[in-house]
């Protein structure tokens, strides 16, 4: 999906999903969608970047690292998140793995004692991530033995039904 298509899509999602008055946005910023619409919007934006090259420290469509992808995708729907996977894992509202919804973040320890990898849960056991040097943004599966062994938690920055905004 191109950026010029994304804005009308997000406006339509907001119009359909608003039950109350939204908070006033910062000048130049979109009002973040709420509830499941936010999760779906995150997955939709992330899916646009399937095939984008991995770039260490990257947080633009020219190249992403894992946390840069999460950072950029959240910013595209008007949400601010920390920049690194470890910071994202500590700042996100914890979600039980049994309660994952599209748009939630899944956190991994691949090579260290702290969280050093993150993906965006897309539903049906899949997540979108920027895996490593030489690879591209792609889908992976939580039940893949490599990721299953290293999965340490999940969290979200968007509002789920029944949860108040921070």
Describe the structure concisely for a colleague.
By secondary structure, the protein is an alpha+beta fold. The protein contains five helices and eight strands, in the order ααββααβββββαβ.
How many distinct helices? 5
Instruction: Give the N-terminus to C-terminus distance in angstroms.
Output: 30 Å
Mean pLDDT: 84
Instruction: Label the CATH architecture.
Output: Alpha-Beta Complex
Tell me the strand percentage band.
Answer: 15-25%
C-alpha Rg (nearest Å): 15 Å
Question: What structural class results from the helix and strand content?
Answer: alpha+beta
- The helix-strand sequence is HHEEHHEEEEEHE
Task: Name the helicity range.
Answer: 25-40%
**CATH C-level name:** Alpha Beta
**Which fold does the CATH topology refer to?**
endopeptidase fold (from Nostoc punctiforme)
Q: CATH homologous superfamily?
A: endopeptidase domain like (from Nostoc punctiforme)
Give the count of structural domains: 1
Give the strand tally.
Answer: 8
Low-confidence stretches: 5-28, 162-166
- Biggest sheet: strand arrangement: 3-8-4-5-6-7
Shape: globular
Q: How can the largest sheet be summarized?
A: 6 strands, antiparallel
Question: How would you describe what is shown here?
Answer:
By secondary structure, the chain is an alpha+beta fold. The protein has one domain (3-19, 33-156): endopeptidase fold (from Nostoc punctiforme) (Alpha-Beta Complex). It has helices at residues 3-17, 36-47, 66-76, 85-91, 145-150; strands at residues 59-60, 63-64, 93-94, 105-108, 117-123, 126-129, 138-141, 151-156. The protein has a 6-stranded antiparallel β-sheet. A two-stranded antiparallel sheet has the order 1-2. The longest helix is centred in the N-terminal third of the chain and has 15 residues, at 3-17. It starts with a helix and ends in a 10-residue tail after the last strand.
